[in-house]
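Take a sample.
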Amino acid sequence: PTYMQPSDSQLTGVPQTVIIDPNTGLPQNVVIIQQESSAPQVVGILVIIYGAIGVLGSVLGIFSSSLLTSEVDDALLDEYFTQLILVSAISGILSIGTIISGIWINNRQTRGIQLAWLLIGVGLLVSIGQQLLIPAELSDPSGMGQAIGIGFSVVCNGICGVIVAIPLMVTGSGMDDSSLIG
């Protein structure tokens, strides 16, 4: 009997059935490992930087308003500077919370995004309140300045809210299921 030896141009073996997963279109035994997105780290660091700048601005607002209060004798300006000190203190607290939310986002915790949204909303309300509490003598007589300021605040805070949400919109961000509520 003559036996043929397999050569390089011949295939030998038994064909196997390959089952294709209908959801992925790939064979069932294929495992796809995807690198986690860096979006949470990038956004988290940006939020931390934003919070740090806010803390510095708040400290500057508190000290500059208190210095101006001691220099000006006008009762109207004195009352307004007191409001500025109060708003600066509230903004400082919000900025510290923003730093905390940035750290949580950087650690891929969804509650950081939720906290950032909450702080953005409260910051918007503080900004609108500050615009509305400006004494009439110090503001634009037509009220257009306050309206423009409020409009800018709404748009800017909306953009910040969308930027903070980027880690939730990115595939493979690795965000956990943590929540501020519950």
